[in-house]
Amino acid sequence: MRRLIFGVLLFGLCASVIAKEIPIESFAKKRKYEDVQISPTGDYLAVEMHDENSRRVIAVLRTSDMELVSYLPPAGGTEPVNPVWVTDNSFISQLSITHGDLESPRLNGELVIMNADGSGRKMLTQNRRELLTSNRDRGPKNNLQGYSEVIHNLPSKPDKVLIKYFEFATTRRDKTPKVYELNINDGRVRRIAVAPSYWGEFILSPEGEITHSVGTDKDTFDVVVHSFVEKKWELTGRLSQHEEGTVPIASTLGAEEIILAEKSKDGPEKLYRYDLKGRKKKLIYSHGRVDHRGFLRDPVTGKPLAIHFEPGYPDVALLDSSHPITQAYVSLFHAFGGQRVEIISGSRDGRKLVIKVTADNEPGQFHLYDAESKELRYILASKPWLQGESLARSEAVEFEASDGRKIAGFLTRSEGGKGLLPLVVKPHGGPHGVRDYWEYDDDVQMLASRGFAVLQVNFRGSAGYGNAFETAGFHQWGDRVQKDIIEATRWAIESRNIDPDRICIFGASFGGYSALMSPILAPDLFRCAIGFAGVYDLELMWSDGDMPEYGSVLDYLEDAVGRDPTELARYSPARNAQKITVPVLLIHGREDERAPISQFDQMRRALRKAEKPVESLVVKGEGHGFYLLENRVAAYRKVLAFLESHIGERAP
């Protein structure tokens, strides 16, 4: 039997018995509240939220009584996201387009500004004429056609901000950012600088002056540091690439220091302070098991105060233990019993802080913390309709794979079940650049509420465990990656009260691929398979959908799967349908651009040709994942009915 290592929560892992069945709609509904940004004076909150039609809007609430003051609605097929306060009474939002539930909103490059009271709404950068607010409005006085984000509110120029700007590009090497000074009244811009290196980050003084740029040499891929002297760039430092690479992180410690993440050849990253003037680096942290997951920052200055990391459960490493915000954070972290605590925004004087708390059974709570009085005030819940419900708990687990590599994951179980539990294995999407965390998941909680245990596996190829672990999944999609999932399932049977005769695998995107590929390699392990928006023919990724449109994605495919037709066929479920011995359910959006409907057609056709049992649900108007509530509910009902018929209590 393989050795098991698992964490134990200090505040208790056992959940109470779920007394009543939670409606499917409660899991299918999107989070009502996503983000909360407090204004510089602390008088207003800009809240990114979903309206009754599941569209994103920005609502402005008065902090004192949480009353609605105004809101920024969707317009012209776009939705506002990522509000940033640029004056005491106005904020700028980026605009996005959403193609499906499995995709993050795609920023379309446009910026809109609005006052807290709803007045003064206008476009500051614009690609489309239909968003003009009136016939007299001729749009912003600039021709920016790319991605923009606010990087500094210039304190000495109240009507201007600095933005970082990328022209829309198709390849990695086109990514050379520029900095513009943007007039928030009329959209006029003045170019300040062009980064001297590819993917260059700009280092700013507290006053908003550019002091340095840190980026990558296009030819050698060394990290290069340039100083901005009299509006000209001077090369002042070079860090030669290690075999695995060094990456500048966009987090400054002031105008003279940055943090670098150095990728290790055989382990997770190491974080260094780098002195831009002295050209020296000093190790500040290395976890030994996982990469970092963001920073605790001073919300006013942006200075990193601590490092978030999650080997299983959330933890933190302090960089500045004497800072008042760090001390407040430590108290809050302990007060919330080890849940993930983030300080996501703060007033200019640092007194009012917005705190977000999440956990495996907590979609998200927002609190307002008064740093002076030490008072904590609850303000919003991401999914208020789930407050008070007994949700299942997730256990962080780790086992040793057959080749000796440690594989981590999470096992969620409903305490209401008796005897051996049916199991749904739920591999994540990606597969690279993504991992599962100890956090709330609609699919997991929906399944657990119906009595199924759920296993999530951070198989090799997942992000967050070091570059070597992630690249170990390259060219292994249909082999070692699936073996990690299969071996994790067998570990759960041996160690965690799982019924070996009632196991199904269900995944979306790459998880959908795994849901069809794992049963091919382990035909006797699973009783059914569900693929949602999956990729089933690897060769089609090179020609169909939106991936071939982007040079950077083609580079990724070259690294991840290659072009060898023999290997692509061997690792494609649609080319091996005759080896599938379990009933299959395929769910897909007809307008999916990432995993186009041709992937679904190819898989279903192959299963039917091989005379394998297959059910399907295809929804018009949906993309990569289902966006509308009624379609999400329909998909959940289809999944549950399928699971009940094959691994439920009445299954044969």
Task: Explain the overall architecture.
- Keywords: Aminopeptidase, Hydrolase, Protease.
- It comes from Microbulbifer donghaiensis.
- GO terms for molecular function: aminopeptidase activity; serine-type endopeptidase activity.
- Helix content is 16%, strand content 37%.
- The chain folds into two domains: 4-22 and 392-647, Alpha/Beta hydrolase fold, catalytic domain (Rossmann fold), CATH 3.40.50.1820; 33-382, Prolyl oligopeptidase, N-terminal domain (Methylamine Dehydrogenase, Chain H, 7 Propeller).
- The chain has ten helices and 36 strands.
- With 652 residues, it is of the alpha+beta class.
- The strands form eight sheets. Strands 1-29-30-32-31-33-34-35-36 form a nine-stranded mixed sheet, with helices on both faces. A four-stranded antiparallel sheet has the order 2-3-4-5, with no helix packed on it.
Instruction: Name the CATH class of the largest domain.
Output: Mainly Beta
Category from helices, strands and their pairing: alpha+beta
Question: Can you tell me the number of structural domains?
Answer: 2
| Major β-sheet profile | 9 strands, mixed
Q: Quaternary status of these chains?
A: single chain
